[in-house]
Amino acid sequence: MTQVGLVVVSHSRALAEAAVELALIMVHGDKPPLEIAAGTDDGGFGTDAVAVMEAIMSANQGDGVAVFTDLGSALTSTDMALEMLADMGEEIEVRVLPAPFVEGLTAAVVRAALGSDLDTIESEAVNSLAPKLEHLGVAEPPVAGTLPGAASLGASDSEAPHETPPDAQQLVQVVNRDGLHARPAAAVASLAQTFPGEVMLDKSGRRANAKSPISIATLAVACGDNVQVLGYGEQAEAAVTAITKLIASGFGEERGKIPLPDTTSNSTPDTTPAAVPAAEPDSKPGTKTPTPPRPVWHAPWETPTALKQ
């Protein structure tokens, strides 16, 4: 299976290697073709158009190459590299993505490892800031699909309800301490990708594409949250069962303390005053009050035995 190649262009070799190392932590399985063109030959800061060109050629497997850059001149060097490729007659589909360096690269690495096409990788990378923006309360996150050839994986992918009920569904509680953060989200996406049908995760009515780690991250699923796993189409039951089992396992991570359910939030407090037992008239401090005799019913004209004494 061929994969989309990835190229990281940075002024700093150390920065590029750290970003790649972080992204590869999220990969479950074979790593995608990935090359770094960063720094100068003497270990300094800078970019080299020839190095970028060679990195693109090395990363290319025939399905295109996505390029991630850090600062301004990295873009200039990449443009020069594309011109050199064209002059050499190299026909490689290269897209320099307007995506955040770390988040975009991480999303692209996960998708490329799953065998996604260049359109999907571009959309996932462009939308990779969505979880952070949502957490910070930013109203207008970037929308994928506005670039040539990009396929939207934004709000329509994570929030649009299905017109038909799922073919299979199961409820599962998240038990690992940190919830569905980046690595568990990538694990779920990797597993979901192995099934032909569509798989969604639903948290309190909000849905996410289970094949997209970025989409899963927008749900902000924490330890103790309940998630519905919904399967549609072919092998729906198998997909739902496998993903439910994975989430319930805790991903091999430390388990968290599951919050106890709030049983008082919707209840009306009992304002009825508690009954106070009457004190015995003959009781003295320090003496034990005897247990009163069982009440006996008497006719109205009779005097209870207790009152005759």
TrEMBL record:
One of its GO terms (biological process) is glycerol catabolic process. Residues 253-309 are annotated as: Disordered. The keyword Transferase applies. CDD domains: PTS-HPr_like (cd00367). This is Phosphocarrier protein HPr. Residues 167-254 form the HPr domain. It catalyses: dihydroxyacetone + phosphoenolpyruvate = dihydroxyacetone phosphate + pyruvate. Homodimer. The dihydroxyacetone kinase complex is composed of a homodimer of DhaM, a homodimer of DhaK and the subunit DhaL. Keywords: Kinase, Transferase. GO terms for molecular function: phosphoenolpyruvate-glycerone phosphotransferase activity. Residues 259-289 have a biased composition (Low complexity). Component of the dihydroxyacetone kinase complex, which is responsible for the phosphoenolpyruvate (PEP)-dependent phosphorylation of dihydroxyacetone. DhaM serves as the phosphoryl donor. Is phosphorylated by phosphoenolpyruvate in an EI- and HPr-dependent reaction, and a phosphorelay system on histidine residues finally leads to phosphoryl transfer to DhaL and dihydroxyacetone. General (non sugar-specific) component of the phosphoenolpyruvate-dependent sugar phosphotransferase system (sugar PTS). This major carbohydrate active-transport system catalyzes the phosphorylation of incoming sugar substrates concomitantly with their translocation across the cell membrane. The phosphoryl group from phosphoenolpyruvate (PEP) is transferred to the phosphoryl carrier protein HPr by enzyme I. Phospho-HPr then transfers it to the PTS EIIA domain. Its EC number is 2.7.1.121. InterPro entries: DhaM, DhaM_N, HPr-like, HPr-like_sf, PTS_EIIA_man-typ, PTS_EIIA_man-typ_sf, PTS_HPr_His_P_site. It comes from the Bacteria. GO terms for cellular component: membrane. Residues 3-133 form the PTS EIIA type-4 domain. The keyword DNA-binding does not apply.
